[in-house]
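Appendix B. Extra example for self-study. Work through it before the problem class; the solution is given directly after the inputs so you can check yourself.
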Amino acid sequence: VRAEVLAVGTELLLGDIANTNAQHIATSLARAGVDCLRHVCVGDNEERIARAIEEGLERADAVIVTGGLGPTQDDVTREAIARVTGRALITDEAVVRALETRFAQFGRTMPPSNLRQAQRPEGSVAIDAVGTAPGLIVEHGGRVIYALPGVPWEMKDMLASTVIPDLQRRSGRGASIVSRVLRIGGMAESGVADALSSLWDRLGQGHLTMAFLAGGGEIRVRLTAKSSTADEASSFLDEAEREVRSTLGDAVVGRDEQTLEVVVGELLSERGWTLGAAESLTGGLLGARITSVPGSSEYFRGSLVAYTTDVKHNVLGVASSTLEKSGAVSEAAAREMAAGTRRVLEADVGVATTGVAGPAEHGAPVGSVFIAVDGPAGADARGLKLPGDRSTVRELTVSAALNLVRLYLLE
Amino acid sequence: VRAEVLAVGTELLLGDIANTNAQHIATSLARAGVDCLRHVCVGDNEERIARAIEEGLERADAVIVTGGLGPTQDDVTREAIARVTGRALITDEAVVRALETRFAQFGRTMPPSNLRQAQRPEGSVAIDAVGTAPGLIVEHGGRVIYALPGVPWEMKDMLASTVIPDLQRRSGRGASIVSRVLRIGGMAESGVADALSSLWDRLGQGHLTMAFLAGGGEIRVRLTAKSSTADEASSFLDEAEREVRSTLGDAVVGRDEQTLEVVVGELLSERGWTLGAAESLTGGLLGARITSVPGSSEYFRGSLVAYTTDVKHNVLGVASSTLEKSGAVSEAAAREMAAGTRRVLEADVGVATTGVAGPAEHGAPVGSVFIAVDGPAGADARGLKLPGDRSTVRELTVSAALNLVRLYLLE
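Solution. Structure tokens for the complete assembly:
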């Protein structure tokens, strides 16, 4: 089964929000072994939505549409699907009652505009709403259109509960495509590519493909294997993973969902250690990334975001002499911040970030960053020159700090 | 001039990363008054890239391609453009020398794979590299293809310095399209839509369109006006904005770039006040969002991320009796956290978040959140029941906390 993803929304087309729905759907399709050919995004325009659905159905067996199912006048995905499939829109009385009940539960009267959400093309199947918008399954000419709300958590719920199982049912048997991502820390993309070039040359001949992707302070190596059985495809991947790991060593952070923050959490849990952070330029991003992992309260104590010099002194205990002699953006300050947060938060390991994210220079050029770690096995620190704009520098700093903690814990 | 955006990368198609490049390009096009018809994303496959470029050139005057210009074997955008335009690939010796110089500056020898980045279709114009990959401008049949690297900060640099000015030069004169986004805090999408329905009905007849978009804890109302002159289009927008503001009052946070975090910063600066945060379930996200604004060190002292109960007690001074009687997820705890961070960080205003982000319950159901503010004008707090998954609950909490600070500062 081949699928395409169509995101509907002028807000996406104009760049008001990122198309994270397409990303989530793509990940789910890849895991389910469904080939995804293309993502498309069009605005809230009935004709353009209809044309994009038609084109998608020519290339693929299934088109997954997100967005345009809301209650407002610019939500026209229902109308576009009715047009493409040549069906009338009917009002689903069961959905009307469900909407009324839902509003009553919150003690509110349903605004009249929400009634539009009860409409659907004749002969379609409604997917039960998790918010207020129901989803749709519409069969057409041996192919299928799924329409899901644009609200991410509603979309994710329907995708997992209904769309992926329905697609797998339709796909029956066929070739198994399995892929695996290895996450590499602390290396440049071209360095990874060159280190793995002989592996790449050999893979080019067989059932395996390899792709590199850079972003967020790490390089990911995606290995994809095709075979008649999932077991055989997985064994191809196992062999390739062994080769990558033996070539790159400790630079391999983990695979698939084993992000830096997950691996750091696993290493801390293994040792029964806790972590505390001290942040300057990252402003809380480091803590936010560590706590994006469910259950992180087991090993994460907290973070002291010291955005001004006197908070670094008063709260973290960075010495006045250090701040005067070396400045707040220095290896010495980073080391004292790491030791300070370890002490104040009563954590086994402290990690700290300080530096200049830009756009203005603050005593040092933009991209000058120092990270430090302090713990039972002593302290370590690094000075970095990071490229990019404010948000890139902050993100790269978080990854570098997490990688420093990881390497510290591995030793 | 009508443009389309084509993002190339199997990592995008498989969902390994979100297509934030398309978002950035779309925003820049909208600001420059260039209509954007469609975003497309395909994998690292020469034939599919070529077909997507061809289709884009049929609908639009310009196709902006990102990605596939890197040094590795799966970067084939150069080859796809050569195929579509029927040109040979040549090696640009000036680019070879620039690459060698760049690597020498960092004290490294250029890996041989980087030589691929010096290739370009005959007759194309190279856009100077800001990282290692040069961009391309390729004219074809009266239309134009721009190829930019996939690395966000490199892409952004070339887009702003070269692509947008080149597109504006090509567009000459025409209708002016101006749009404006009003950001609404603390209301549901259907509530905003119903409140503005009479405005919508009138706008439908004229030169204005209105669209709603929900996400990240706010509703955005996008107003777009078309006219022969930019001044007239702007005056249509001014009138519509006045109506929206008079209807929605204080719920209007700001317009365009005036996000919650920017407006909170402006209000603090006006009063000469500083802000400190205390975070539990948001884990640093609140501080990260406040410090995403350049210059926030003028008014932001820092954030105390207290991810465990004893850190709430030891660092923020939340009373043991409160933690025993009401628990860490309570309005009382939120109020004491806000007062505590105000005291510890010596800030004029303190803001606090506590709650359950999920997926596991912690003494309260997932989505139970308390936010509080404490300052010279007294204290305020709210209890919220937030929908969605872990990351949605955390994001909505940050927005609600910032909105509470905004309303506090407005009073």
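Self-check: The longest strand of chain B covers residues 176-185. If your reasoning did not lead you there, revisit section 3.
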